[in-house]
Design a protein that fits this description.
Layout (H helix, E strand, L loop, with lengths): L1 H18 L3 E5 L5 E8 L3 E7 L2 E8 L4 E9 L3 E2 L3 H8 L11 E12 L2 E11 L2 E17 L4 E13 L16 E12 L1
Antiparallel strand pairs: 1-4, 1-11, 2-3, 2-11, 3-6, 4-5, 5-7, 7-8, 8-9, 9-10, 10-11
Length: 190
Amino acid sequence: MRSQLIATALAVTALAGASAQAATYNIDPTHTFVTFEVTHFGTSTNRGRFDKKEGVVQFDRAAKTGSVNLTIQADSINTGTEAFNAHLKKPDFFDAAKHPTMTFSADKFSFNGDKVSEVAGSLTMLGKTVPVVLKATSFNCYDHPMLKREVCGGDFETTIMRSDWGMKWGIDFGIPDKVKLLIQVEAAKQ
């Protein structure tokens, strides 16, 4: 009986220690970029990014768990060309007046050793939520020399079909449905 009590106490202590590793990380908007790429009639690649984004990551390396909540302002789209930005903000594409934000929420992290290899969640855009898996092409945590705290982040990517969210303008005359989505993120431990 005594050995069972000791084993139970050790298990509870181990679980408490593991949960003590969980931490909140605020996404650094100056080191976080949400960009996209789509081919232009099979010739060149159009690129754009969203300049306004914010979010929080809950991360526990010991337990290999986490969650992400990222909010992106649709009207902050920036392709480097004002006329293109204006068209992308209209109902043909992001309909930024009616749908001012997009969100990525995830609660499943996969690991390769101690590195995050993918994050599974959902992307809400144009009022519709669709499952999305972001694959990590790099991931690292380090002690930031100026912030004096841990920062974690990496490069993540996926390919989506924009029509899954009802964004179909131009598909019938050759503008691709397939869009590469890239997210470079750094988040500072709080």
